[in-house]
Amino acid sequence: MGTLLQDKYTSWKSQCEARFQQLKANEEELNRIFIEIYGLQDELTPEVADRDVTVHRIFDTKDDVPPTMQGSAYVRTKRDEIVSLLSYAVGCMFGRYSLDVEGLAYAGGDWDGTKYKTFLPDKDNIIPICDDEYFPDDIVGRFVEFVRVAYGDDTLEENIRFVADALGGKGTPRQVIRSYFLNDFYTDHCKTYQKRPIYWLFDSGKKNGFKALVYMHRYQSDLLARMRTDYVHEQQERYRTQLAHLADALPQASGAERVRLAKQQKKLQDQALEIQKYEEKIHHLADQNIAIDLDDGVKHNYALFADVLARVK
Question: Where does the chain have alpha helices with state H?
Answer without folding.
Answer: 5-38, 78-94, 139-151, 156-167, 173-183, 185-192, 223-227, 233-249, 255-286, 297-303
